[in-house]
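call fold(seq) -> tokens
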Amino acid sequence: MRRPASRDAVHMTSPRSPKNTAAFYAQAAISFGVALFGMVIGELYLPVDGWIRAFLALATLYLVTATFTLAKCVRDAQEDGSVISRLDQVRLERLLAEFDPYHSQTPHLAPQSYPSAQPHNVA
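ret:
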């Protein structure tokens, strides 16, 4: 029996998922901040009664929390998919590393001869 492949060999062949850069995070945070700031300023200077302004502020707060929840759900689903994909890839790598095409796991059986195929000797 061959010894299993080392873990280093598996990690070397698995593709790394691209990571976001610090600039991308900064751009996303600034974009979110600008959008939220613009929405709040728009609500404050909107020429309506205070109750309508309060309703719009609550709607903005709800929209922000729903956005964070949706982003978390999408991230979790994507991570689950990548974990399952990586596990399947590791299993395949292990099977390929342990497979020896010149070594048979089951003994070869000799062809059987059937009685009807034997010539009849009549004596």
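Residues 50-98 form the longest helix (49 residues).
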